[in-house]
Amino acid sequence: MAAREKLFAYSKIYDQKGSETLFLEAMRESIDHHRTHCEFYDKLLKDRSFSSEQIKSIEDCGKIPIITAEFFKHHEVLSVKKEEIKIHATSSGTQGQKSQIFLDSTSIKLGTKMAIKAIKHHGFISIIPTNYLILGYEPKEGNDMGNVKIALGMTRFAPVKEKVFALRAIGKGYEIDYFGIIDAFKRFNRQKLPVRILGFPSYLYMLLKMMKDSGIKPLKLNKRSVVLTGGGWKKFGDMAIDKNELYAMVEEFLGIPVKNCRDFYSAVEHSVAYPECEKHHMHVPIWSRVIIRDVKTLEPLGFNQPGFLNFVSPLVSSVPISSILMGDMAILRDGKECSCGIETPYFEVLGRAGTANVRSCAVAASEYMKGD
Amino acid sequence: MDNIYRGELISKDNFIDNLRELKEIIEDDLLIESLMPETVIEAAHSLAKEINKQEVVQQLITMGIPKWASEEYVKVTIDSIDRKALQTKVHSELGEKPFVWKTVETGIEEKEQPLGVILHIGAGNALGLSAFSVIEGLLTGNINILKLPEHEGGLSSKILMRLVEIEPRLKPYIYVLDVSSKNNEVIGKLVEIANAVVVWGSDEAIRAIRKLAPPYLPIIEWGHRLSFAYFTKQENDEKDLAGLARDICLTDQLYCSSPQCVFYETDENKELDNFANRLAKHIENVVAEYPSLARPTDVQAQITWTHELVKMEEILEEKRLITDEKKQYGVMVDYNAELKASPLFRNIWAMPIKRRNLLGLLRTHKGHLQTVGLSCDKEELDELSNILYAAGVNRITSCGYMSVNYSGEPHDGVYALRRYVRKVNRRVNKAYERK
Q1: How confident is the model at residue B434 (pLDDT cuts 50, 70, 90)?
Q2: Are A199 and A169 in contact (CB under 8 A)?
Q3: Alpha-carbon gap: B1 to the closest alpha carbon of chain A (Å)
C-alpha cells in the first residue's frame, strides 16, 4: 500500500492541500484493501453501490459508506489474518461494551511515526531529563491500562529522570496518592527540571482542587513543563470543567504556562490522535479528514453546525475503519480562524451523542446496560 | 419562589433554613384532627372544574407535545381528579369507611391510619404527576413533602398551591422543595423526618434513595418499566397490528405501558420478516394521520445511532431495519430474541420467539415488567396469560389499549392508597366495649 506509506512519510503534517493527491490515493488503496480482505466490508460496499473509483476529490470522501463505532464494539471484523494482529487495544467506556481495535504491524508502525511527527511539530521533543507525573494507575500484575501504556510510550519524547503514578494500589483498590504526588512535585521543584504531566484531565483537576482547597503554596515548576491530557472525563463527567478553566488552574498552582497545556482527542476505534495547537484547537492533520454529519439524515454539514463526528483515514489496514462514525457530537471550524499558523480545519467535541435524558417512565436504553 | 412550606409559598433557601423547625412543626401537626378523604376529594374536584384546559394544553404544545396528545392528556388528567373518580379510587382501594374504627370481634377493633409523613421523590416524566402523587398522599391523610423533579416548570407546585387556596385545611399537609437529587445532605434530612419514601423514576433514582434511607424505612417504588406486545400466529391479526401501531405512535412510547418490543411466535425468520413488514405498513398508516414531530437533537441522535448499528448488522444478516424515507419510525427486526429497550419515539424491536422460551426470557427482567399487548386466539388466552403473569407481568391488554386505564385500576399490581396507610388495631378492656 504505497500511497499510505508515502502519506505518512510526508513531512508537513498540516499541509492538506499539498498532500491531497496522496491522501485520496491512500483512501482508494485503503478501501480496495479492506473490501478485498474483509467479507463484511465488501458486502457493505456492494449494498451501497460504492467503489473506490468514486473518490476523485475530498468531497467524495463523504460518499464512503460510514460504519458506526458501536458496530466494532460488538463485532470482531478484520481485514487481515488473525495471526497478523499484534495489538488488541481496548478502552473503558463509561457504559457497557468496551471500544476496541485490532492493529497489525504496519498500522502500528505508521501510527507511531504519526505520533512522533505530531509531537515534534508542536515542539514537545526534548533532550532535557524530565520528571513525569502519569495521571493513571501504577502498572501492576493484572492491571493493563491502555492509557498508561500510551503515556509511558510518550516518555520517549523527553528522557525520564523519574516517573510517578497518580493512582497507587492502596489496600484492595487504587486511590489518588495526593501526598505522594505533592512530595514528588516538591522534589521536582527543587531539581528545577521540566515536568511532564500526562493522562486523564479528571485526575489533574482533582489534584489541583486538592491543592487549592488545602491552601498549599502554589508551585513554580520549570517553564518548559508540559501538560498533555487525553481520554476525556469518562465517569467523572459530572465534575468536568471548561478546558480553559482547567488550564488556568494549572498555571496558577503549578506555574506551567497555559500554552503548554494540550489536550488530545483520540479514539481507540479511529487511532489518529489530535493534539491541540497552542490556541487549544484540535486541527485535522494530513492523515485524516473530519466530516460532521446531520443527526437525522447523516448528510455532511459544513462548518459551524453540530452533528455526529465522522473520521475518514487510511491509517489502519487491519480493520475497515476507513470512514467511522463516532458517538460524539462535534462542530467543525475553519482553521483559518485560528491564529496559531495551522490552517487546516479544527473540531470541537460537544459531548456524547445519544445520552438523551428522555422524560419517560419507560426503561431507557442507557439505564438498561448492566455493568455500568 | 415555587417552594411550599406548610401550605405557604416560600423560597428554596428559606425552606432549607427552616429544616430544623420542621421536625417540631410536624410533631405538632401529626396530632391534629385527621384529614379525611372527603375533604381532599372536594378540593380536588373544585380544582378539576376550574382548571383552564386551554391554558394547560397550550403550555404542553409549547413544550413540544402535539396538539392531539396534549388535549388527550389534559382530559384524562382532569377526569382522574374529579369527585366520582376519586371516590371510586378510595372506595376500591381502601374499602367502605376507611379511617373509622370497625369491630373485628368483641373488644377488638381495627382502622386505617396514615403512615404519617411521606417523602415523595418526584417523577420527571409525566407533567404534574408529582402533584398527583401528593394527592394520593393526602387522600390517605398523610403529611406530604415533595422533592420536585427537574424540568417540570413548576407545574406541580402551581397545582398544589391552588389546592391549598381552595381548601386551607390542607396547609399542614403540603410541603414542596425544589432541590437537586444530588443534594444528599438535604434529602437525607427529609428522609429522617419521613415515615416512608415514595420514589418515582429510574433505577438510578431508586438506588440513590435506598442508599440514603435506613433499613427499616419503607420505600415505595414506582420505577421504570419495559412493556411489550406478543403476537401468536393467527388467521387474521390485522386489527391487532393496527391497534399496536396506535399504541406505538400515539404515546411515542413514552409511557411505562408503551411497547418497546413485539414478539412474534415463530422460529422462521421469513415469517418474522413478513410480520414486521405488515406492522410497518400499519405504523405508516397511523403516522400519516399523526405525523411524527421533529425530535430534539439528542433524541434524534440516539435514534440514528441505534439505526446505524442495525444497518451494519443487517449486512451480517443478524438484524434488519424498516423505516420510511423521512425516518418517522423504525421497525428494528432482530432475529435473536431478547427483551430490551428501544430508543422510543416510534421505534420498536420485532423478534421471533418460541412460547416455551418466553418465561425464561421475561424472568431476566422481572423487576421491569408491567404491560403486555396480547394478540392471540381465544383458546390461547389463558395459557399465555398464565405464563405472562408467572413471569411478573401485571397488565394484559388487547392491542390498542396498552396505555388505557380503567377507574380503580391498580398501579403496578398494587393499590397505591393501601401502601400509604397502615392497619392499626386495638384490644380494649371489656369495660370499654363499644356498644
Answers
A1: low
A2: no
A3: 24
